[in-house]
Amino acid sequence: MKQKVVKTLKFSSFFLLGILIFWMVYKDQDINRIKSILSNDVNYFWIVVSLFLGLISHISRTIRWNLMIEPLGHKPRALNTFLAVMIGYLMNLALPRMGEISRCGVLARYEKIPFTKLVGTVVLERLIDMLVLLLLLLVVMVTQFGQVLEFLNNNPQVKEKLEKVMYSPVLLGGLLVFLLIVWFSRHKILGSSFVKKILGFVGQFVEGFRSILKLKRVGVFIFHSFFIWILYYLMLYCVFFSFGFTSHLSALAGLTVFVLGSFGMVAPVQGGIGAWHFMVIEGLALYGVDRVDGKIFALLAHGSTTIMLIVLGLISLLVLPFVNERSEENGELASENI
Question: Are the beta carbons of 284 and 247 closer than 8 angstroms?
């Protein structure tokens, strides 16, 4: 009961935070103007292309995850892995980071793979994604330094928060105290039964994490690690051609907006709602796009992707048990024939 209450409070707090940011961004927007532009001034062909690229990126992520699982001695069916990935995206819309746990749980159940090993692969996957994102940020900072500097000057609260995190004496002091406590208590801590259980859990986790050292197709893995993010970028850049006020912007401008929006997705709110919109609107403003138009752009780009994830996620939830039930029946028939 207590856990359900805690989960409910977490969901509510994150959801309300996202709604609050979203309301602050859109509270002064003219609803009739939004309806008029969405009805008459949008080239929806590029929205369809964007969503198609999104689907390809999810398939690419499925292939990469299977590559990471193979060294663990398991070879899950690609369809099960894809359905698990899509269910994960759906769960992320309910609670931030819940998707990672959900997709590991789904695959562990239907493919009989240890859950903790799968979690290790997903953590590694997220670290690789963060490295690629930081690489893209570096490209943006080198090629669009003026715009990045202008963004920080236009949003001093973002700059202040970054400085506080980097130079916080409370954070650094707390980390030092924690490390000292762990060091002087290490023998007692390591001898407890609780820690031994945790170490067993960590052992399986690390095995999943180290799967990258045993990859059979390293080149394919590296390709998909970059291909996923190229497709994410193209998804957003395609939306630029849906509006007259963004169709003239360069590919580098699109990359800048994409990177800023990606950091908005890191915010602890469901699906980046509110935070992603704010970052994209401010990113477009750096290139002369009126913030009112930027709000409409962000609303359509985020809304169309979210609807696709909800639809595919719900379909995956419905299809998953049926697909595996049929495969189990086929397996039983095959064994009977033998």
Answer: no
